[in-house]
């Protein structure tokens, strides 16, 4: 039997990049996938790919920063499949946010990053946690960044938002654990994907040279970790932050 056979797993922000890689890995391992994505074109395309590979998936247009939208998302999934076993709270703003010093970031940009990366993670978890608690099982994976470990400059709003996600994960683990629900956080390093295409070559090279594993990171380096944390193999792991950056940061 496949690792996630017949489980229902939500992946937010699954229309591109890491989110899309997560859903393909989880679908290949037997999960039924809910693609919660604000971009209709990207979300529908992701579902089409899963269907073509023989998997089961549904697209639900979702703005994770909206309580109404996240509640409707969870209700639609329960109406379709009757259960929610896992959540990858992946949706977030990352690209096109760098380059400004702390005093050059606009209030609107700061607020938007927090709305999606922090409030979005919180609201998505709030939408699915009651069902998981009622069933006395479930696993949630939140997504941070290794930039919180070394304080990447000119990304203050992004780094701050991801630090909040890490703290949120620890506190939520305390609240959910008694009901058998786990939540862990993954902090990827710099990867070679569309979201990091704007990163200067010099920064990429610096990352590679200073890693214990001296190569570029790929989306495939993250999918196995997320799958593991969602699986029964990680049944005694909760509240943890796992850095996956080739050994740039030792945590």
Rg from C-alpha positions? 17 Å
If strands are numbered along the chain, what order do they take across the biggest sheet? 3-2-1-4-5-6-7
Task: Report the mean per-residue pLDDT as an integer.
Answer: 94
DSSP, total strands: 7
- SS strand fraction: 15-25%
Order of helices and strands: EHEHEHEHEHHEHHE
Which stretches are low in confidence, meaning pLDDT under 50 for 5 or more residues running? none
Query: Largest sheet, described in full?
Result: 7 strands, parallel
Broad structural category: alpha/beta
Cα-to-Cα separation, first versus last residue: 34 Å
**Count of DSSP helices?**
8
Tell the overall outline.
globular
Helix content: 40-55%
Describe this structure in words.
With 251 residues, this protein is an alpha/beta fold. Strands 3-2-1-4-5-6-7 form a 7-stranded parallel β-sheet, sandwiched between helices. Helix 1 packs across helix 8. Helices cover 45% and strands 15% of the residues. The chain contains 8 helices and 7 strands; from the N terminus they run βαβαβαβαβααβααβ.
Summed up, what is this model?
It contains 8 helices and 7 strands; from the N terminus they run βαβαβαβαβααβααβ.
Keywords summarizing the entry:
251 residues, 45% helix, 8 helices, seven-stranded parallel sheet, 7 strands, alpha/beta
């Amino acid at each position: 039997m496949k690792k996630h056979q017949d489980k229902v797993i939500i992946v937010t922000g699954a229309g591109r990049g890491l989110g899309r890689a997560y859903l393909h890995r989880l679908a290949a391992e037997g999960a039924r996938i809910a693609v919660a994505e604000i971009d209709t074109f990207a979300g529908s395309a992701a579902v089409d790919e899963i269907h073509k590979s023989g998997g089961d998936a549904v697209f639900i247009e979702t703005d994770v920063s909206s309580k109404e939208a996240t509640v409707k998302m969870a209700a639609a999934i329960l109406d379709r499949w009757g259960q929610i076993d896992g959540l990858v709270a992946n949706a977030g703003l990352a690209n096109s946010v760098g380059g400004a010093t702390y005093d050059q970031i606009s209030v609107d940009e700061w607020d938007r990053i927090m709305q999606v990366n922090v409030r979005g993670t919180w609201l998505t978890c709030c939408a699915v946690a009651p069902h998981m608690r009622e069933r006395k099982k479930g696993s949630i994976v939140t997504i941070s960044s290794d930039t919180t470990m070394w304080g990447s400059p000119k990304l203050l709003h992004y780094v701050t938002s991801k630090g909040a996600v890490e703290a949120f994960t620890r506190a939520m683990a305390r609240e959910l654990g008694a009901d058998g629900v786990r939540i862990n956080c993954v902090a990827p390093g710099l990867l070679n994907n569309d979201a990091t295409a704007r990163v200067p070559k010099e920064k990429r090279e610096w990352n590679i040279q200073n890693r214990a594993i001296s190569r570029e990171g790929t989306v495939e380096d993250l999918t196995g970790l997320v799958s593991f944390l969602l699986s029964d193999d990680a049944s005694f792991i909760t509240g943890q932050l796992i850095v996956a950056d080739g050994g740039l940061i030792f945590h």
